[in-house]
Amino acid sequence: MNSKVFRLSVLKLTVALLAVGTSALAQGPKTTFTVVRSDQWGAQNLNPFSPGSQHLLPTNSAIYETLFFVNSLNGKVTPVLGTKYAWSKDSKTLAVTTRPGVKWTDGQAFDASDAAFTFNYLKQYPALDTQGLWKSGLTSVTAPNASTLMFSFSAPNTPVFAYIANTPIVPQHLWKDVKDPATFTNPKPVATGPFIFDSSSQQAIRVLKNPNYWMKGQPYVDAVVWVSTSSNDAALLKLLSGDVDYGYVGISDPKNYASKGPDNSYWWPTNNINFLYFNTVKAPFNDASFRRAVAQAINTKDVALKAYAGAVPAASPTSVFPSQQEDWLPTSAKSLAPTFDVAAADAALTRAGYKKNAQGARLGKDGQPLPSYKILVGAGWTDFITMATVVSDNLKKVGVSTSIDQQAWGSYSGGLQTGSYDLGISWGWGNGSSPYYTFNAAFSPDFSAAVGKTAPSNLSRYTNPTITAALKTFSSTSDAAVQKKAMSTIVTAVLKDTPWVPLTDRTQFALFNTSRFTGFPSAANPYNDASADDVPGARLMYLNVKPK
Known about the structure:
alpha+beta; D-Maltodextrin-Binding Protein, domain 2; Dipeptide-binding Protein, domain 1; seven-stranded mixed β-sheet; 18 helices; 19% strand; globular; disordered N terminus
């Protein structure tokens, strides 16, 4: 679609959306910041507690707000609905001061009682507690006055602050009457965020500036519109043509994108890892010996080279980010890490009971040929598709047959979370200023679930009592030496059991077309971590981008 046609389409969309009902901006938006997505979204759902695959993109990035934002790159805490916080000397009580002068979009005042209600609501409806707050030792949340929020714990657990900070806050006066929040689609959201929901279709979503937002003078734009494309390549074309301003797009070579024009820029800071997940409740992926051999058969350097043209390196097999290795990586990790060796992987599979037949196909322990397994990836995600292609070619050399299963976001994330996949490529569904957040999200029993039920982040459904105990030890102390010992235990256990294969470092994938706006996050101004457009950190970008 050319630029003229696209802008005409946006104009028609704007007129149509304004005709649907009353708008927060009577004359229509003067400045619209446009975001491109390389996937499709589902039906209208603006419930901030619904999994990310179910609610619309602006829900937890532009409409609802949290108490704080914790930048995963540097640990910096940005106040939002909370203005300050402090732990007690024994780290069993957390006091948060809430922001005065904030109003919900229906005009009612926000105060600490709304926040207390929100956290207690998660206790009342455990399915909503995807961060596992009430399994972390949290015993009570109270609001002794309109500006004070008190969290009490049975034992010290300071890492939980990042999860508390990240929880969307809802208005008590409305949500107290929602009796089935797991299925509630929240069609008319009332929140405190910088934007108000306007309307959506399968092609576009629009939010409009909140005229009564508590941060005076911001946001600088009148509207944010998300447009949908079928693939990363299609999203890239819109960025190159100037039709859109921002995209969170995993292309293979961001340097090439930047070279195409003076308005093209990107910022890809590393803050996660792309993993090949094993569904460990399914045979043969429930066998650690099989998993270790598969890991040894994968050339992760080739995966990284082909997926990102050398812009992103292969991941450490320890699953610890490069910036965290100096502080947290045990010296024993190097000797335990698997090395790429096809012959050794082939022999290891045979030793583990998975022999080959005369045709070279791998057999199960029962002597029957193993079926062809599917590698689940996002539809049109060229980086993940490339990774899966390399993995598939590698596994073919040891007699394991696979195919690539491309799914739209809803079925992709849903398949991972409900355990209906064989193998899948995705990022770590939890990260932060130490490896604790990666391993806790990935392997804590609190974030797992029975097959068919939604696991918040333990996608492999792998748990290990040794890891569980070490996670508890880590979170129960602020003693660095004790925490390092606990982390060594976790890293060692993960290396031995191989519940996943770290493929590449995962950078954020922020691509910008700066022809119309300034104020994007960058290495020089890392006010967020180049967060994806549908998570709380993206709110800071929507607040800071300014028309030229």
